[in-house]
Specification:
mainly beta, Tachylectin-2, Chain A, 2 domains, 6-stranded mixed beta sheet
Length: 529
């Protein structure tokens, strides 16, 4: 099952059937880059998907950032590490201290601006005190080719001490992307004394000059006269049941908009995707994502719309129920979506819709052998169930439990009551002239079980047998990827033609005739002699 957003800027499909994105064959997340997923994906004009991934800990730097590519948007292969100039961070401005070491890279978004690719990296507070990079976004030029590893820094966004009074630097805690304006979209900080009049936690849009180094910005529009640093164009909270400001409005829960979201301009429509996080821990709050859009260049925005709603708990990761809340949505211009959650093994993973050619859900199949018989003869019906592989390390307990189905054969086909073989747990029944049923079965991750039953046919015809996905139930509410089907050809018994027998009295007449012919033959031969 797939869900399309209630408004269609991309349009982007957020599916309930997802798979973990892999990097060099390993799920991208806990098992590769750590539990904190700080990644961005774009779809290039070269027909490939391009991924930039920030690793955790000692590798959380632009100089350690991975660039990878994929033809399907699911399986990525590392192409190399970014190669920024040596000591690119050694710049000072006003009262800001010069960074002593490369600043930590926390979140990244790559966007196409004016035909070239630009990278925006948000940096957390840096070790050794405040500097121009702390709580600020740096802008980078990748170039026309997204495969370029030799990225060039344009520099951090201006701040009040390294720019103008309207500068957004240090007054935001996330970057959602850039567009052709060129504009940059920033996730603003919460209400504070330095932000008089701010409602907090919303989306700000700034004009950004990416030909200057460092870049310059201008607010658009400067709607908050008391605080021109912010351009509160999109309210990401209204009607959601959450609020970031204090005191909290009645009936709302304290939350913040997570730092990693995405704003994307497709065909003149701006779409912003985001999630809510716990106000104190920044952990994702729910199995849902949110969306606002603007069709007039950001002058006005729709009210927030839920993407998954009640379907969030039903989202599968590699065929099994997800194990965590949703965060860090990412979308591409071609309509593919990504976000972060946890798989059934509690690994943090970046997920995307599964492909039809490689569906990871539970599977079910059936076949007749032989597939062609005569009326009154028997064939063997094989029914096979397979559990999703899910995740690694595979859970020791069954991933599918209380598995059951009931199946009746088409008219004129009957079970003989003979179970040829069965390795499915639980209770299997296939009484003569009755229905097939399996109850209380279970499967571990990736496990297959098979039941083989004897079937007879009472009339000729072409028979199509089917076990529908809706006929299969289990405790996890997992639905097989598709119906199980099998065809059987039953032919009528052929009519055998038998030669008309010679009457018994006819043998005497034949013998007499043969004797006469023989006598005549002998007499003729003597007269010639």
């Amino acid at each position: 099952m797939s869900l399309v957003e209630p408004v269609h800027a991309a349009p982007v499909v957020f599916s309930t059937n997802t798979v973990a994105v892999t990097l060099d064959g390993v799920p991208l997340g806990t098992q590769t880059t750590g539990s904190g997923l700080r990644n961005t994906v774009v779809q290039g004009t070269d027909g490939l998907y391009h991924l930039w991934a920030i690793k955790n800990g000692a590798d959380s730097y632009v100089s350690k950032m991975v660039h990878a590519t994929s033809s399907d948007g699911i399986h990525f292969t590392t192409q190399g590490l970014l190669q920024p100039p040596t000591d690119y961070w050694k710049i000072a401005c006003g009262a800001q201290a010069m960074p002593a070491a490369e600043p930590i890279a926390t979140f990244v978004r790559v966007s196409q601006v004016g035909g070239e690719w630009r990278m925006a990296v948000w940096h957390l507070n840096q070790t050794g005190g405040h500097n121009w990079y702390s709580y600020n976004t740096s802008v980078w030029r990748i170039g026309v080719d997204p495969n370029n590893l030799s990225v060039q820094p344009l520099g951090p966004l201006p701040t009040t001490t390294c720019g103008t009074a309207s500068a957004p630097g240090r007054f935001h805690i996330g970057v959602f992307g850039m567009d052709d304006g060129p504009f940059i979209y920033l996730r603003h900080v919460t209400q504070a004394g330095a932000l008089v009049g701010s409602v907090g936690g919303n989306l700000g849009r700034y004009g950004v000059n990416t030909t200057a180094s460092p870049p310059t910005t201008t607010p658009r529009p400067a709607v908050d006269a008391s605080n021109p640093k912010q351009t509160l164009e999109a309210n990401l909270f209204t009607g959601t049941g959450y609020a970031e400001t204090t005191p909290l409005p009645a009936g709302t829960a304290h939350a913040l908009v997570y730092n990693a979201g995405r704003t994307l301009n497709v065909s003149g429509v701006l779409g912003t995707y985001y999630n809510f996080a716990d106000y104190n821990t920044t952990a994702a709050l729910e199995k849902d994502l949110w969306y606002v859009e603007s069709t007039n260049g950001g002058a006005s925005w729709t009210a927030p719309a839920s993407i998954y709603g009640a379907q969030g708990p039903n989202v599968l990761v590699n065929g099994l129920p997800n194990g965590g809340n949703f965060s860090a949505p990412e979308v591409t211009s071609g309509g593919r979506s990504y976000f972060t959650t946890r798989d059934a093994c509690n690994n943090s993973v970046m997920v995307t819709p599964a492909s039809a050619a490689d569906d990871p859900r539970m599977s079910m199949s059936m076949q007749f052998n032989p597939a062609s018989i005569l009326v009154g003869k028997t064939t063997q019906l094989t029914v096979t169930l397979q559990a999703p592989v899910g995740c690694t390390p595979a859970p020791a307990l069954p991933v599918v439990s209380n598995l059951a189905y009931v199946h009746a054969l088409p008219a004129n086909l009957k079970f003989t009551g003979t179970v040829i073989s069965n390795n499915c747990t639980g209770t299997l029944a296939a009484p003569a002239d009755g229905t097939l049923s399996l109850a209380s079965s279970s499967l571990t991750a990736g496990q297959t079980c098979t039941s083989v039953l004897e079937v007879s046919a009472t009339a000729a015809g072409n028979y199509s047998d089917r076990i529908a996905t809706a006929d299969v139930t289990n405790a996890q509410n997992l639905t097989p990827a598709q119906d199980a089907t099998a065809d059987l050809l039953v032919s009528a018994i052929p009519v055998v033609s038998v030669a008309t027998p010679v009457p018994a009295t006819g043998w005497t007449a034949l013998a007499l005739l043969a004797g006469i012919l023989a006598f005549c033959g002998v007499g003729l031969n003597r007269s010639r002699g």
